[in-house]
Amino acid sequence: YKMAMDWKLALPLHPEYRTLPMVWYVPPLSPIQSYAxxxxxxxxxxxxxxxxxxxxxVQYLANMLSAGDTGPVIRALKRMMAMRHYMRSQTxxxxxxxxxxxxxxxxxxxxxxxxxxxxxxxxxxxxxIPTSHREMARDAFPERNGCGFTFGDGCHGxxxxxxxxxxxxxxxxxxxxxxxxxEGE
Length: 185
What we know:
Blueprint: H1 2-6, E1 11-12, E2 24-25, H2 30-37, H3 58-65, H4 70-91, H5 99-104, H6 108-118, H7 123-126, H8 175-184
Antiparallel strand pairs: 1-2
Helix pairs in contact: 3-4, 4-6
């Protein structure tokens, strides 16, 4: 929730389909950061480099993650680069430089929490796996021969007249009777 709603880093894949996304994607920063560190991106007088001139076109990422709108993708990339710049200045240089995070509208608390979840998160923070109660679990061994979703006329061989499609029911033809009659004639 924090990555998608609070920090606006995670974006859904193809939101133009208007489906409820179950998986959210964070735009890739590794090729951008290495290219920026090598001096490949212009800075335009700002702390952060201009992400609009990337090797991976922003429009390509926007077509996949934000229905063609480049604004959310650029915002997510700039926020991740600002977090990286702030944490690097704090840990390597020993100086708290908040210019980069001020430029993208983040607070120090947000950046430290982002760093905790994105860089040093443990297993429980990275993956949300629903817990189950073993005392409430049913033994699945007797169900091993089940047919799945049927209305009784699947592998159970019942005589139900229920029809899902509300049309007249066509009874199955017994092939062995037809074959026996053909052989007997």
